[in-house]
Design goal:
Largest sheet: none
Strand content: under 5%
Distance between the termini: 39 Å
Structural class: mainly alpha
Radius of gyration: 24 Å
Order of helices and strands: HHHHHHHHHHHHH
Number of strands: 0
Number of helices: 13
Shape: globular
């Protein structure tokens, strides 16, 4: 991150000179290199997150499921607070300073925080001796390493292991939650602005949704203690589906631009913003479409209400699946399961962006809402299937589970 910020700070500081000397292609080169560095940073962050949240935290809990639930809740609460505060601070930097100062400040903070993070990780590692004990399987054949073919084979075996493990339905349920536009990401943010919701209002709503998510993360430990992880996950999924039902209803409410049969869509010119670099000279196009017409915000208000309320069920379900995997995956395979799970999450998130590219206009956003809701329901069904197989649902207790509650023995690996 610090390297990326240094690159961007240098580019913005000497942009005019660089473009004049090298040409306009330097902008494209800086963009590509910056995105590449950001991808490496994200990959490293995900790896660290898997180690700490999927492995270390289980060892620190020492087999106490209640303590594990509380620690998961605290981790998620800290995560939500950081995701709420960081955009606010970054926005303040971009608003009251310039890109160069903002990039330097963000880079400096990352350099400082890496020393703090390293110190904390080393302290935890020394405090809990169990983290230093690595279980190495005793096998008669040497383990091959280093070759590309071996790495591809290992990755394939990891996916085979994931889909042969009993937690697969719980993990697939969590992954389905990533194929949704029903969250405060860039897609919903842009759609809301097109529906004449101001950015200041959206900022407040993001903060409110974060608070609702924090309530959900804090409610997880007592719910898990009362109902168990599987049933708590079903409660979270149920709350998520009910809340997002409002979003589906909003598609047909007054003010909704939904019209899947619309062939020509000329309203995209209405959302041209000042400073976008586009000079609007067409006749009959108002400078500010939102102020020049009467806007019915019934549809978008119900949509945003459903998204905010859904944060509670989302984080309850997320924490439930996380704990299910922590409790039921063998120690030496937690990294494999966690890596495949992250890949599934990213894959379905990529599918979301692909669908947005196919249907980019606001009159098609209703289809994206319906597809997102369908995937959420599919995720709820998948998690319920896991709970039924584990005998955690009364109507399914007649069917005997293939695994006992405390069994974390890995299934037999499929030979390649």
């Amino acid at each position: 991150v610090a390297v990326d910020c240094s690159l961007l700070a240098a580019y913005f500081h000497w942009r005019e000179e660089a473009v004049e000397y090298f040409g306009s292609w330097i902008t494209i080169l800086v963009s590509v290199v910056s995105i590449g560095i950001a991808l490496v940073s994200t990959l490293a962050s995900d790896g660290s997150k898997i180690v700490v949240e999927k492995d270390w935290i289980v060892v620190i809990a020492g087999g106490d499921d209640d303590k594990l639930a509380s620690m998961n809740s605290i981790f998620r609460t800290i995560d939500l607070v950081c995701h709420t505060v960081s955009p606010v601070l970054a926005g303040a930097l971009f608003t009251y300073t310039n890109y160069v100062i903002a990039a330097i400040a963000i880079g400096a903070w990352n350099v400082f925080s890496v020393f703090v993070e390293y110190f904390l990780l080393v302290s935890i590692y020394k405090q809990f001796g169990g983290l230093a004990k690595k279980i190495v399987p005793q096998t008669g054949t040497p383990v091959a390493s280093g070759g590309i073919r071996d790495k591809i084979t290992g990755s394939y075996q990891g996916w085979v292991y994931y889909f042969s493990h009993k937690v697969r339905f719980a993990g697939l349920g969590l992954a389905c939650l990533y194929m949704t536009v029903l969250g405060f990401d860039n897609i919903t943010w842009a759609y809301s602005i097109m529906q004449c919701v101001s950015e200041s209002v959206l900022g407040i709503l993001v903060a409110v949704s974060a608070l609702v998510g924090i309530v959900g993360s804090l409610a997880f430990p007592p719910l898990r203690k009362l109902l168990g992880a599987e049933r708590t996950g079903m409660v979270g999924m149920g709350a998520l589906v009910m809340s997002l039902s409002l979003c589906v209803v909003s598609v047909w409410l007054p003010g909704s631009p939904f019209d899947p049969w619309l062939v020509e869509h000329n309203d995209m010119t209405e959302v041209i913003e000042d400073g976008s670099g586009i000079i609007e000279e067409a006749e009959g196009i108002p400078e500010d479409s939102c102020s020049s017409r009467t806007v019915d915000i019934t549809s978008v208000s119900v949509l945003l209400t459903g998204i905010i309320l859904a944060r509670f069920g989302l984080w309850v379900a997320d924490l439930s699946v996380t704990q299910i995997m922590q409790e039921n995956v063998e120690e030496r395979k937690r990294g494999v399961i966690g890596g495949v799970q992250n890949s599934l999450n990213s894959g379905l998130n990529l599918l979301k962006f692909g669908l947005v590219l196919i249907m980019p206009n606001q009159h098609m956003f209703g289809i994206l809402i319906i597809l997102s809701f369908s995937f959420i329901c599919l995720g709820a069904t998948s998690l319920t299937t896991y709970a039924c197989k584990e005998g955690k649902v009364d109507c399914c207790r007649t069917s005997k589970s293939d695994y006992s509650q405390a069994n974390t023995t890995e299934p037999q690996e499929v030979p390649v």
